[in-house]
Structures are given as C-alpha cells and as structure tokens.
C-alpha cells in the first residue's frame, strides 16, 4: 500500500487519494480473502526488498521516482525500520528548507522537488509554456536549456536525499526506479554523477544504478514477504 496505515490496518493518510482515508483495509481484505492470514506493507519497502533480492545485495537503498517519490531501505536482507515501526518515507526527506510545498504540508521534501510532476512544473516555468512528459523527454535528449535545468534540479535533489540516507545506513548499492526516472534516458546516470560528486574524504557514497524490476517491483516484494523470512 502506498498509503500510511495505522496499527489496526486502517488508512490513516493518503494525500493523493484523500477519499481512502479511514478505510479499514484489514476488514475489506478479510471479506475478499476469508480465513487466510493478511499482512500489509508499504509499497516502497516491498520494492526495496525485491530490488535487493534481484541484485543479490543484502544492504540496498531503493528510490522510485514517479508521480511521487517512494523508497525503501534493506539492511541485512530485511526492511528498515521494519515490521510495526512504520514505513521508510524516503520521499519526505527534506532536501531544501525553503523549497517547494509538498503534499504532506511541509516544504522541500525530495518528493516536492524531484517527482515527475515537480520536474514538469519546473520545466514549464522555465520554458514559459506547459511541458508534458514527452516534450520533457525530447527536450532533455536535445539538451534544451529549460529541460536540462529542470531535470538536473531533480537529479540534484534526489542525489542529496540518497547521500543523506547513505550517511545513515551505509548501503552497498543504491538503485533508482519508478516510471518517471526510467522514462528519461540519462536521469539515473546524472543522479549517479551528482551522488559521486558529493563524496567526502574517505567516505565515498555507494554506487547508484537503475532498478531492474520496473513497475512490478512492489508486487515481487509482496510475494517475497508472503513467502516469509524477508522481514517486510
Ligand atoms: Zn513531504
């Protein structure tokens, strides 16, 4: 689930789908699937588990850039912060104290700075005309100034978030997925360059590469979690 659920499995918040707030997910799923054990987990946490499994890497950070930004941390093959402790809300790491307003109400969360819609808004402002995804992709490929500026701002914001997480948990690898990042050739590479440029003496950040499971990563993670032993 992308939503935040309370301890009883009720949707506590889902900024992009406010009508779901208060939904008793446990009860609804219980009616659909009676007499089976039910578990839920955050989609970003599950995607991270799946990407870690696919990479054969037990200590990995995953970030997905799409209409929002989600992600997860896996350490020792298990989700962090782990069962019963809430989800890893990587998208709400603050990377710009006076930055854009986020869905959550704060300013400068990486989601507000670097998501697909945030990048398109910035590109539109720079170009002086509305920019859609295909135009951004083409503009970036052609190195149009407005497109390069918009994409590089997002890559820089994402790099700041990844480096911050890396300082805390020391992963062996960091991977970037999500439809927006995957749809802009060079987005992952530019972010990787910016992460590498933030090396401090004696502490190089973990290498950054593309996620490999595409849109199915959360579902792969759910299957892994359902099979047990993965700690989601
Ligand atoms: Zn936020």
TrEMBL record:
Domain of life: Bacteria
One MF term in the entry's GO annotations: kinase activity
Entry annotated with the keyword tRNA processing: no
Full protein name: Kinase
Coiled-coil region: none
Similarity-based family: Belongs to the ROK (NagC/XylR) family.
InterPro entries in the cross-refs: ATPase_NBD (IPR043129), ROK (IPR000600)
Keywords tagged on the record: Kinase, Transferase
Lineage of producing organism: Bacteria, Bacillati, Actinomycetota, Actinomycetes, Kitasatosporales
Pfam families registered for this protein in UniProt: ROK
Residue ranges crossing the lipid bilayer per the database entry: none
Organism: Streptomyces seoulensis
